[in-house]
Amino acid sequence: MKVKAKSLDHIATFLLTTIAVLIIGVLVLMVGYILTKGYDKFTFDFLTSPPNISEAGGGIGPQLFNSFYLLVLTMIIALPLGVGAGIYMAEYAPNNKFTQYIRISIEVLSSLPSIVIGLFGLLVFVTMTGWGYTLLSGALALTVFNLPLLVRITEDALRNVPPSQKEASLALGISKWKTITSVMLPAALPGIITGSILASGRVFGEAAALLFTAGMSSPDLNFNTFDLNGPTSPLNPFRPAETLAVHIWKVNSEGLTPDARDVADGAAAILVLAVLLFNLFARWFGTWIYNKITSGARR
Amino acid sequence: MSHQGTEGTLLTNNVQTNNIENATAVTAIQQKLTTRNRNIYRENLFGRIVALICAALLILLVLSITYFIASKGLSTFFVDGVSIKEFLTGLKWDPEDEPAQFGVFPFILGSFLVTLLAAVIAAPLGIGAAIFMTEISPGFGKRVLKPVIELLVGIPSVVYGYVGLTLLVPFIREQFEVLGFSVLAGGCVLALMILPTITSVTTDAIEAVPQDLRNASLALGATRWQTIWNVVLHSALPGCLTAVVLGMARAFGEALAVQMVIGNTTKLPESILDPISTLTSGITLNMGNTIAGTPYNNALWSMALILLLMSFAFIMILRIMGRKKLSNR
Predict the structure, then answer these.
(1) Has domain B84-328 been given CATH number 3.40.50.2300?
(2) Which of B35, B63, B65, B66 to mutate to test the interface with A (most CBs of A within 10 A)?
(3) Which residue in A88, A133, A232, B268 could disulfide with B51, CB within 3.0 to 4.6 Å?
């Protein structure tokens, strides 16, 4: 009996270890596969030239730019709203029905399928506003998609600030709002920034919410103008913009060029690399700023 | 003498004026302390209102998403006159036929099939990884497995779809001599995508199990596996279930990764090696090609409404499970 229990224990340990190794193996295989397949596409030409519709040799320049620009636009809209709502949830929210409704709303928003958010964006930000497929519509849809995460990040970061700091500030006669903005928020900043960088990675790779909001095409961008209104101006927020993630999907499902697979390989590799960098940067930055603030580096 | 005298009176005068000044200062301070500071009051009010607006926006968003999707989605039944029963249970999807057929059952079946398959594959792996990380080898788990799983979260869904398309589909094609685009491929891709969710939620649940319980079990002579199986997993069970349901909610709504590998036919599958459609893949593929306001387009919005209602249903399930967990304690 005892022997049986012992051998069962060994078998279970072996199985669990196998699972762990399997998961690591799958990730290494997947990331390795993507990066090695797309490796020879890491050329300056591929990264900057526009895609070619019918012939081989197109690049992903506009898509790469669109992805970053959309990320910036999204964060400009989403961060203030997310931080504001996070402040409310952490500092003001009384224990009542209204707060519960907000909590449920956050839960609902964060579990909504991104395609549903995209359709909502199509209806409200594209059709009702009359803008058509634009960068701004995409940014607004991604704001909806990203908001619950940012609220949660801010709330957690604020709740982790030691209460003594807040009490000290209030005891000096400083108003609650000033206490929040000039004492609590700076203390919570590392958490908020690390979380936002990770959220940016999510925004960067999102495609389903963008298919019907930012559109699946990009005009020929003219990088020599900084006119905000020109139809081919890169910075114009009222132009359609296909992002890198959308491009991968489109090339795979309706790509006509002979080298569609190669383009997808390269784009996927760039996307994964960008997400990896976001991830590493968030980790590094989190530790760095933590050390800076708590002087942990000297230890 | 007189000089001194004057000095003295000056001194007393000084003291007196000082006293008067002090008194006025004291009353001023008193006033300042006892009356409300307008500026601070205004500042606090401003802050509270700004924060409140941001938070109220979340409720507004949920309400307007529900309203807009529902108003579009319901027009299939109220404007185009398709019966709800026919819509949900009809097996034939042919919106361009005369008369058009709007049976979305194949899509609903597809969504449930890939979700269930993903859960069946990912649950043992995810829970196993969580156990490994907390009970078997916490050091290695924290340093290697946890970052790996966090990276899996970060990889965009189109990349999962792309890898599925270029690795998994050809693999299935060669192994089973079928088309390759299949329920199985969709389930595998989704399993990989929901694995991180299941693992991290389960890890939290297992870490919340008091160490005393483990020690008691080990002290009774139970092996590590007996402790894990009978004690740790037993008390972390609600957390594990929550994890799996959360993962399924995510799988049900995933669009592009699934769409790329499941083949997108509206025929009912005979085995998990056959291609199929899901609600999300149907919407993704057709929404751009149909004209707003047509019955075809409205039917797609109705499919989106089903997705929305399903995500509400998942949240309800999670809430009920959470309440049970609290009352158990």
Answers:
(1) no
(2) B65
(3) A88
